[in-house]
Queue: 3 jobs
Job 1
Amino acid sequence: MPGSSPKGDPGILKGRYSMEDISVEFRNVTKKFGEIVAVDGLSLCVRSGRFLTLLGPSGCGKTTTLRMVGGFEIPSSGDIFLMGEEVTYESIAKRETHMVFQNYALFPHKTVAQNIGFGLKMQGLKKSQIEGRVREMLNLINLPDIYDRMPHQLSGGQQQRVALARALILKPPVLLLDEPLGALDAKIRKQLQLELKQLQKDLGITFLYVTHDQEEAMIMSDIIGIMNSGRLEQLGTPQQIYETPKTEFVAGFVGECNFFEGKVLGSSDGLIEIQDSSGRILKVERHSFDVSSLAGRRATLAVRPEDIEIGETAALCVNRLEGKIREKLYTGVVVRLVVEIEDNRIIVDLRRGISSLPSDRIQIGWNPDVGSVIPKD
């Protein structure tokens, strides 16, 4: 696998890298359960030391993908490599991975120290060696004083830290995390998100993380893979996923999005022109395809609610529409307007500090640099 990472590459997958750069690679992997296709022709590489999150709705195949890396499931077809070695049919014990589950899976009859050191004991290390390593891990997870406690004496957040320490003490080059924060309350969950991200950065271990929580994925990840119906819809940095979605599913799943259906007319002055169903010409900059190949074809313009202006500011925008306010919703962070424009309902998010809002008719607008064009099919 010759070559190096091209400028701007998020660390995965389009080209080939030297084998030592790659922690995990899937080559056209499919997993079926009877007639159900859980993972469909997945190909991807994860570079060493990256935090990759698989994000998607329930049943999209993300957990099955994680379990195939760990050897808990065997692919129906395709090949899986870890650190350059094929492991498609290898046992769990022969893979250089460890998994952290949502339910912690701690031994209830063992102390914290015994739980964390269990893997080292199975490897035959001396008691003094195990104790030293366990105390190192407890310092790493900021819980140095719980060495002799039992799991039932710990909070949920503490139990999850112990489960994480038990996995990390074995120094796996790849750590698999299956919704590990899903059972925690919101405040503890947010705290552990930051701790996990910092821990991964400090240790340089490759993290493969599964969640259905969009905000969690955006906060923690170097790279996000959006999965839908067993397929990888898009792979990229959080910014790429949010600002330049490649499919309508990605745009709608990650955050809120407004969609305008239309036809690509071509380009003018560096802007793509789309004619919507009402005959309006809307202009946009962002795209990841050859515009000339799409002229005359159907496409969707996606615009985020926070990128839409109202009133006097909207009047200065390149793209302008007028509609009727149907709802005003106070969410704490923003005021959300639902604006009806002919047969479309547009969501507009306004800063909470805006004191006066129109009572009925409203002009909205946005400039070409904040939309994304998504080709049909």
Job 2
Amino acid sequence: MIKKALLSLTSRPKHQLPVLDVVRSIAVILVIVHDLGCALESNGAQNWFTRFPLVRSGFYGVDLFFVLSGYLIGIQLWKELLERQSIRIGSFVIRRGLRIWPLFYFFYVCLILTGSTGRDQQYGWSDLIYLTNYCNRGIVKGSWSLCTEEQFYLLAPLLLSIAARRTVSLAHYRMALGAGFLLLPVIRALTWWLFAEHFWVHDPELYKAVIYTPLHTHCDGILIGLAIANIRMDNCACQLRNWLTRWWAPPLAITAATILFCIHQAVFAFTAANLVLGMVVFWAIETSVSGWPVCQWLPFYWISRLSYGMYLNHGYITGVLARALVEKGRIEGGSGGMLSASASIISVALSAIVAVATYSLVEYPFLYWRDHRLVRPKQLAEPAASHELI
């Protein structure tokens, strides 16, 4: 089984879009680099690397994951809906679970057995039922985003199945997604007004506590991804696709995003970011970017395939590296920035190596059993594992 797992990393499936491997690789690298910068700052070290804009805003890599998740799962849901006029919710949830649960609970058990949770072990119950994004921080680092994904897996097929009973067209679904995207800033504004003493002040801690993790305030990327999938599956949306691929579409999205971000960060940050990220993903899919030689590089496929494991393990690796760098000193100033930048490359490499082990021993056996033993109609085959969720 280990040999099969390693062989699966050596060649990209023919039907797969190489550019999505690039986008997914960028997403996980952004998250790792950002978390290393945060770990350095939490240990009292600052330099040009920790202040670099791309490092400080690397958390938007999670939103890029959300856009990809919404798109790739959306393609599957729209396809099944069009072919069957319904969605087999149980089968969908089980297949998604076999992708996410094994490695997540493997990390959970390892943390419990090794005592790595410290005083936080009392919070582990929210990880078990995927409510970390609402109840507390949990014990698995980054679990809030996985909880958002799991809640998406349950709600998306359920809501689509309910709507399908009224034979709603893809255009109507698209209008609903647009309304939801516009409603999210309103929900964030009301939430901010309720919890903040002054509406126009920005409090990073309050923002993280009440805005950043809940599904109902941070699912813009998922809605954008679902909308992109909807447009791709709707043969009547050709004119819309043409408009969105015009030269002026990306500058317009960037301009709108900049204006929104400047108006109110807590309310419009995710709206702004996902307008740009959604445009990036849409252009990557719709244009000839996939034909570029750089998109064919196998390292992008490797990182893409290992991204889930890297997402789960990188927090522990960056924490150890940051403490080691601070203890050795010389982490301030220009040379310290270069040392930190080098540490980010090491973090990505170590995270990938650990992910190869967990992919071979934990992820792949369940994926293999799911794809070769779990009965499913061939026509409803899902995207390859490398393009599945975080």
Job 3
Amino acid sequence: MATVEINDVTKKYNGIVAVSGLSLRISHGEFVALLGPSGCGKTTTLQMLAGFIEPTTGEILVDSCSVRGVPPHKRNIGVVFQSYALFPHLNVFDNVGFGLKMRGIAPADIAKRVKRALGIVQLSSLDNRYPRELSGGQQQRVALARAIVIEPAVLLLDEPLSNLDANLREQMRFEIREIQKRVGITTVFVTHDQNEAMAAADRLVVMSKGEIRQVGTAQEIYETPVDPFVARFIGQANLLRGKVTDVRGDEAELGLPSGQRIVARNRGGATVGQAAVLALRPEDLHLASQVQAGMNNITGKLSRLNYLGSYINAELRSGELSIAITVPRGGTIGREGEEIFAYWPPTAGVLLQE
């Protein structure tokens, strides 16, 4: 296990900034996910950690030692690529042991370490098979075993689940987390899939345009996003924009463009006249046939109802507003085209600066 420190790192390509002033500390044995849309800088950050590219400015430290100028094969870092990069002409045993062989490890030690690594990923009985004889999930485990068999200080995962189907991807995200906990390797996981990141990581690092927008646990980022981008990117969020018309204690009144006024918690210190956004999760809203006292209420027309098994995803249109609502199975729904009220308590949602 190792600590990783990224100190004010910037990477430019021909004057174009890919990563800007990024600073992050990752603790011993921590599992951190770099999360963001395409082009946000997460893969560039991973490549700098691996040593495939060098930062333009700034420093990367592993266990307090700078890795600037250290080639990838001397960094004691394991990498699992998106494509797995297995050798098709080698069987599972030889694929996993390849890195050890290149390091000059004795054959007897290679056999012991490969056997242990295959046991960790539950592939001990498939050591003589070739990649073409394995399922996608099994190939992914072989790639993971190959990375951990060298006993790296840091494990880097570059969107390793993107080639799997939805059901297998969901299964493997939990298996990767269990393996990481058993082995205890400091791990950095790059993904654009928020569900993968939330299920696997101790902390999420949300990135946009080469910068960190927020760092925290899945619960912290989901329930208390710092800005509208994070609120919209992590999970689904309704963003109600307006101006603060009144502040009373820890509550603020927000005037919407439609003229409606709603009340929200004022945790961010919003002031009268300030442009603000109320971020509301779809599960925070409910539907009713009439106004609900003590609640924020918006009336509109049900424009969509999608049955998704355990819940129904509904859409309410009110003027230019389009509001998503998650209705649990058995909850009040209504019919498409019906006029109905969406309501929520003033304590729901997060008021953010525009």
